Amino acid sequence: MAEKDDESRSSGEIQAVDRAAQILRLFGPETPELTAGDAAERLGLNRTTTYRYCTSLVTSGLLERGSAPGTFAPGVLLLQLGAFALGRRKVVDLAPSFMRELCSTTGLTAVLSLWGSTGPIVSRVEEDATRTVLVTVRVGTQLSLTAAQTKIFLAHMPDQLRVDRLLGSLPTVERDALTNEIRGIAGTDKVAMSPDGFGIHAMAAPVFDEYGICAAVALVATDDLLPLDADSATARHLRSTAAALSQAMGGDKHL
């Protein structure tokens, strides 16, 4: 009888872990916050039960209270764990020297991003310490669908169905424009570019390993320091760095 009780308890604990994981998967660039009611509706769970899960995840640090009343958002522990897991990948070990040289050559902030569950995650940042004013990005930040690094991943991602699902969350006009931009990058060494609307520009290039795209290297700066010009010397430095890192990763065949 004791053995059966242990099995029942174990089964319940596994179900609890599974449900917690389902809730955490709901968050992404297009869903930075949600209520327990939203989560319950999307997962087909009881609202009261879902709220208890969310509050427990807040206690553990995996979630935190959102900016709007009654909402939840990814917690610090979740971001730390995600950045740590991504940081174990080989490209993060090889990238620093390439990024430092790129940063030194251009005088701009260099950013390395790896693909997470629903988009790129910033995994390493190199800054030009000689500048009085710096534009930077926090490690662990999940980038939006319109970020330059995201465009690079989507352009070179082999799973088209996955790309379509991600783009499906955008309004029609924005989705069509982004789709056309991605198609223009796919199969080339072109950089992707994106303004944020507040005077900050980003430019990204793909890094390949033997299996395909494994990372994106980007430069981030104010619009006066980083014009969105794909033929500029800055863009050439970025492409050259990404190509050299790809060769170190064994991704020569994709160049």
Structural summary, described in words:
The chain is α+β, with helices and mostly antiparallel strands and 255 residues long. It has nine helices and eight strands. The protein has helices at residues 2-25, 36-43, 47-60, 76-87, 90-106, 148-156, 160-167, 172-185, 233-248, and strands at 34-35, 63-65, 71-74, 109-115, 120-126, 192-195, 200-209, 212-222. It has a five-stranded antiparallel β-sheet, with helices on both faces. Strand 7 (200-209) and strand 8 form a beta hairpin. Helix 2 crosses helix 3 and helix 5 packs antiparallel against helix 9 (233-248). The protein is globular, with a radius of gyration of 20 Å. The relative contact order is 0.11. The model has no long low-confidence stretch (mean pLDDT 88).
Descriptors:
alpha+beta; 255 residues; three-stranded antiparallel beta sheet; globular; five-stranded antiparallel beta sheet
Please give a quick description of this structure.
It is built from 9 helices and 8 strands. It has 255 residues and is α+β, with helices and mostly antiparallel strands.
Distance between the termini: 62 Å
Q: How many strand segments? A: 8
**Number of helical regions:** 9
Considering DSSP H and I runs of 4 or more, what fraction of the residues is helical?
40-55%
Strand order within the widest beta sheet: 5-4-8-7-6
- Class by SSE composition: alpha+beta
Succession of helices and strands: HEHHEEHHEEHHHEEEH
Q: Provide the gyration radius in Å.
A: 20 Å
Whole-number average pLDDT?
88
Unreliable sequence segments: none
Envelope shape = globular
Largest sheet: 5 strands, antiparallel
Strand content: 15-25%
